[in-house]
UniProtKB/TrEMBL annotation:
CDD domains to which the protein is assigned, alphabetical: AcNei1_N
Protein name per its UniProtKB record: DNA-(apurinic or apyrimidinic site) lyase
Keyword Glycoprotein belongs to the record: no
Enzyme Commission number: 4.2.99.18
Amino acid sequence: MPEGHSVHRIARQFDRNIVGRSVAASSPQGRFAEGASVIDGREAVEVRAVGKQMFLRFDPDVWLRVHLGMYGAWDFSGEVAVDATIAAANGRMGQTNQRGTVLGEPILDAAGENSLTSIGAPRRARVRMSEQTTGLEEQSEWPPPVVGAVRLRLLTETTCADLRGPTACQLQTPDEVVATIAKLGPDPLVDDVAEGEERFVATVRRKPTAIGLLLMDQAVVSGIGNVYRAEILFRARQNPHTPGRDVPEETVRAMWRDWVRLLAIGVETGQMMTMDDLDPEAYRRAMAHRDDRHWVYHRAGLPCRVCGTTVLVEEAAGRKLYWCPNCQA
């Protein structure tokens, strides 16, 4: 499932390429034909990302709500103006990252997690960044042909955004948008960070639910998915089965602050980088390969990177939970 960093990156792409332009909207798949007809020809005037949901406002006050869910993704093609921060974090401007690692060349994930043109669930996209490319593949025709089941196509004179496989794609009134957002937990990139911390701590500390489930509850905190859940718990050395109300307050606060930091890194790099203090070569490997990027996620049966104990995996509310029974005892 695309996690919070991906949705914020998507919003940046929309802000750069769609907002301020009139949009031709269609539903090639047909499942959003009525909604597409309402926004067709209107100007996109504002975009917001909150947790795993994006809200795009069309003139004068019609909102498109998109929740990618498990399998959704946006594919961008045509002339795609890349956010400067995102481009730099992918090595295209040769900057030094916050850990002191110099990125002189693009470091691109073969699985496409940090793709600048296809953001969401991993997929083999028609147009995307990959290890073999340093830019967008040439378009043979415009508008580009529809490939696969496209729920919604938004087309400007120069840029195309195709939505595939979302859990939710609907139009909302301003009041409905406010009500939707009100049900979500704090998002470090939207809410005041200090106020968000207090909300998060207060909610967790009164819940009998296991902390491993609370971190995935979007009403408790916005944007955390399976990867960030496992990694935040490990970094806090917190047993995922402990009821929220029994987790020490200082640990709950530390997890919030860790989420603030990891989310910012995810937005900047396009990757869920959760390991710290890597030397330049290790950092480059981690950016290029998911297996070198995480402490416990997707490492079931392998030795813990810290203590050597076998990493466990179990089902938790229908999702896989990875953890070290020694470090997180």
